[in-house]
From TrEMBL:
Coiled coil: none annotated. This is SAM-dependent methyltransferase. Pfam families: Methyltransf_11. SUPFAM superfamilies: S-adenosyl-L-methionine-dependent methyltransferases.
Length: 277
């Protein structure tokens, strides 16, 4: 699939694990004793980073030993955090091979390999049989998904009746035409933003109900502004998410903020349910 290759090359150029490992050493973190908390500044690879995952987790009904699916799990920070916090098991899938490799190596480093399993797959075609998971989520992935109906139908298929599904993303704002580069696209290629109302329709078409939408724009904007200010003062930490954003990291973050300010994007968190049988 042409889109899949383009998107994975955008996200995962080079040896991602070595980049993270080198940054750990530079930050004075001992990789042989690293903890889930210490990895958090890098491995929650989405707007607002770890605080956004924590806030989402606060809203999710996850029980011990439940099986949860992370679609587009990146380098696996959210999966490891949920596994540690709730004692659940998390299966992650991601389209970007260097992220999957890094995710599994990081999971081994923190000793969570019996609870977190990550493999290469496309969220538009999940490698799981029906009704396997007690809940699923997808943080900042759908900006790159060409066929949302199929993506949500696949999530619906593998969830058990009554399971939750959560997603966070940058929807398309009323002004449209986002500035590039942004974290999910260098020049607009591989970007498929739609207004939140269309995402809700697509979720509903897949069968989801009780769809709750929260506007996260101001929270993201505040986080982007503080990252921009820290970069301006030359105070970005050695171990931070910018190491995964490549050479145009500063520009991507500035554009992500400006797109929200100009209502070109509309960030949201959405939580819904597969109806109980
Ligand atoms: C911004 S990162 C978010 C990673 C992770 N969800 C997190 O929050 O830390 C976006 C991720 O979506 C993945 N992705 C994009 N399209 C995908 C698809 N169709 N199926 C699976 N993963 C996808 C990318 O490879 C990348 O790892």
């Amino acid at each position: 699939m042409a889109d899949a290759r383009l998107i994975s090359e955008h996200w995962g150029a080079g040896d991602v694990f070595s980049k993270i490992y080198a940054a750990m050493l530079e930050a004075g973190i001992d990789p042989s004793r690293v903890t889930v908390d210490q990895l958090a500044p890098v491995d929650h690879f989405h707007a607002r980073g770890f605080p956004a995952t924590r806030d989402l987790a606060d809203a999710l009904p996850i029980g011990e030993d439940e099986r949860i699916l992370d679609i587009g799990c990146g380098v696996g920070g959210p999966a490891r955090y949920l596994a540690q916090r709730f004692g659940c098991r998390v299966d992650g899938i991601d389209i970007t091979a260097p992220f999957v490799e890094a995710a599994n190596k990081l999971t081994d480093l923190v000793g969570l390999e019996d609870r977190v399993t990550i493999q290469i797959a496309d969220g538009q075609s999940l490698p799981f049989v029906d009704a396997q998971f007690d809940g699923g989520y997808s943080q900042h992935v759908t900006m790159n998904v060409a066929d949302r109906d199929r993506f949500f139908a696949e999530a619906f298929r593998v969830l058990k009746p009554g399971a939750f599904f959560a997603l966070t993303e940058h929807g398309l704002g009323p002004t449209g035409d986002p500035h590039h580069p942004v974290p999910w696209s260098q020049d607009g290629a591989g970007a498929f933003l739609v207004p939140p109302s269309e995402t809700v329709q697509s979720l509903s078409k897949a069968g989801f109900s009780r769809i709750g939408v929260t506007d996260t724009g101001q929270d993201y904007l505040d986080a982007y502004r503080s990252a921009i200010a820290a970069a301006g003062r030359g105070e970005l930490p050695a171990f931070g998410v910018h190491i995964l954003l490549g050479e145009t990291a500063d520009e991507k973050v500035r554009n992500a903020a400006r797109n929200i300010e100009e209502h070109r994007t509309h960030p949201v968190q959405i939580i819904c349910r597969k109806p109980a049988a």
